[in-house]
Fold this protein.
Amino acid sequence: MLTLFGDDRERFDSAEQVQIVTGIAPLIESSGKKTKQSPGVVHFRWACPKFLRQSVHEFAVHSLSRSAWARAYYEMQLSRGKTHHMAARALGFKWLRILFVCWRDRVAYDEARYLESLKANNSPLLAFM
């Protein structure tokens, strides 16, 4: 993860940029007739650094045994018909948002704080925990 983020805090403006650079974010093909509710066709992102995408994927899979919410999110994705790799990428997508904020704000990740946030927002993820 250090290789991905680096030490230049101005390298990325948002978590979305990190998700796109790593290839974890899907590529959405849209035309002028698409709306927010129906954005278009979603594709796997091939044009990206494969090492970074694989690193995020592996990080997400390894987090399953260490993080209760990560396991619950993965199970939720599987219950929606996603394959193992699709669920792992979705989890990696979620992890990158969290890690970006930790990196940007120079704070350590705190699982208890994240779980409190899920409870405060009445997250549907809680049903899988």
In short: The mean pLDDT is 84. The radius of gyration is 15 Å.
